[in-house]
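Weekly structure sync, notes
Attendees: PL (lead), two postdocs, one rotation student
Agenda item 3: pending single-chain targets
PL asked that the sequence for the first pending target be pasted directly into the notes so everyone works from the same version. It is reproduced below exactly as submitted, 748 residues in total.
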Amino acid sequence: MRWTCLNTKYISSSSVLKPTYVTNTNNHFEFQRRYQFRAVGDLPNESLPDTLHAKSVKNGSLDNLDVRNYVTSLYVKSNKLDYAHKLFGESPDRDVRSWTILISGFARIGYCRMVLELFKQMQIERVFPNQFTLSSVLKSCSSLSDFRMGKGIHGWILSNGIDLDVVLENSILDVYVKCGALDYAEKFFETMKERDTVTWNVMMGAYMHIGDMEKALDLFRRLPFKDVASWNTIIYGLMRNGHATYALELLSEMVEIGPPFDKVTFSVALVLASSLYVLELGRQIHGRVLRFGIQNDGFLRTSLIDMYSKCGKMEKALLIFKTLPLRTNSKFTCHETKTEVVSWSSMVSGYVRNGEYEYALLTFCSMVREQIMVDRFSVTSIVSACANVGILLLGQHIHAHIQKIGYKTDVHLGSSYIDMYAKCGSLNDAWRIFKQTVDLNVVLWTSTISACALHGQGKEAVRLFELMIQEGIKPNEVSFVVVLNACSHAGLLEEGCKYFSLMKEVYGIKPGAEHFTCMVDLYGRAGRLDEIKEFIHKNGISQLSSVWKSFLSSCRLHKNFELGKWVSERLLKLEPFDEGSYVLLSNMCAANHRWEEAAGMRRLMQQRGINKVAGQSWIQQKNQVHSFVVGDRSHPHSTEIYSYLDELIGRLKEIGYSLDVKMVMQDVEEEQGEVLLGYHSEKLAIAYGIMSTTSGIPIRIMKNLRVCTDCHNFIKYTSQLLDREIIVRDLHRFHHFKHGLCSCGDFW
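Predicted structure, written out during the meeting:
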């Protein structure tokens, strides 16, 4: 029996509904008469296939092929593919519609290999497929990028003389495009007698995928009728290929002459606004979304969250995030669950991107507590947050949780772990991750080299860099920044100059601002201040403020006040509102007892509304973070802390320590200077750490600024007196103090 289903409708009669089909035999009328079912409204949607299946078994109607096909189709529509497959397998006879129902069902949910397996069985049983069958099979070939199978089906269609409509031709074209066979796609495109907008969109997408924007734009301009999908395709393609400005121009053109926006357009436009960091554009698109009344769409909500977070407006992102439907009040579909996960993930990554690590960690904890699926993007974001917070115990807990939920350590996650452990002060753990990873690439090597440099092991970082090259791994721009930084902190001038030349001459990498800054720092730490001036002039980098900052820091290190003043004048012209420049020069003035000039710099900062970042140090004890600032007495144990610190300083003076009052930025008596220096934030944190831990346990301190010379000496003497290991992470690196020595070799 050849079966053509025109529609499925229900005709009500005495609360009995009958499925009505149009066939080319009189069996259809017998089917209507014999097999009557209760109204669909009387049954829950999920139970409808099961109920009809049970009734048809009971009254014997399941022996009829039409009934079996109908029940199978209900199982498919209810996403009960396992029941549909079982019923299909138990059928004594199956026609093309039986196969097509099952094949299209599996294709719809992405079970592509099952589709191809069923199609092979269909051919073995010599059932001739129709256009719907072939369309589903070709869709699965596209999803699997199975060129051989797709090309074989195309050949089978031609050899069997099947009429090709534009839908089936588009499916064939899509197979060639998705399989990367652009030459086949181009030839087939030219032979197509009928083309619709889908045809043109598929070809535009093919050219954009390989970055040929010229051909893609040519097709777009030649397109007779541009529907909304055409505009979405070209705008998104331009943006993904680095032509965001041109994409914005086309978006404006679409507003003027194109079709109305659909949800995809809004989503693409929001991604465009976030990639350009144009907050005003994002706000305008948000306004349109509200006017259209589609703000509750899941994908649009996540796009809005992402846009506001990338534009630095986390408070706006949070307002939109709070509109997520509550799980307790609704039953989530698969689509809703996916957008919910992306929304949570976007909030976590947004907080990390904007430096709000505490909120990132709190959001992640809520995500776990609410049993939201943690995706890989959230995992890498939260590991990054732990790295920046620098609390080892927290990082270890996060690592354990990630392993518990089943994420294996790939290249990206592995490099994130290495970075986290390095920044949390545990170089041994960072090494362990590196050695456990099987497929080492340039990212993992670079992360490990950076970890060594961060912990003052410059020579080990250089050794690793050489080993990486020997292993055939090609270093990238970041690799050279890391190794140059390692050379700078270890005072390896000759090696640094060699790698700078190697980067340009052997690997053809054009130096960027970070590479130049590392070289200036390298010369500066070695005391080659005159060579810095020549280097800046030779490379034409006088416009880079980071270079002048490094130069000024070197002038301060080597107490060259006059040169430092000259450098600061150029730096302040480039960045008149950067607090770091003022602080550096003010410190230089104070160190040279030029109190009036130091006071003048502070007054200038006040006049320009520039505030110095307050020094802050923190330590974790018993799952709690204790934070301190200079002279801080807010801690509940402040009396004991200050008392112990005073006693400790007294004992340290007995073994040779003296407070460096030159570091005081005020013209005060020596005794007053000692009081001001004695209560720096890191000293308070270390005093509390010693009081709160038993001997033998390393004390880990984090600081948001560079450790001053006096505090550095204080910690060295403390490690010697108490035989304690003290690990301090400042703005630039780690200092491992042990037995009166520091890993930086007093070179930081």
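Discussion points:
- The longest helix spans residues 334-353.
- Strands lie at 9-13, 16-20, 37-38, 616-621, 624-629, 699-703, 726-729, 734-738, 741-742.
Action: rotation student to compare against the earlier draft before next sync.
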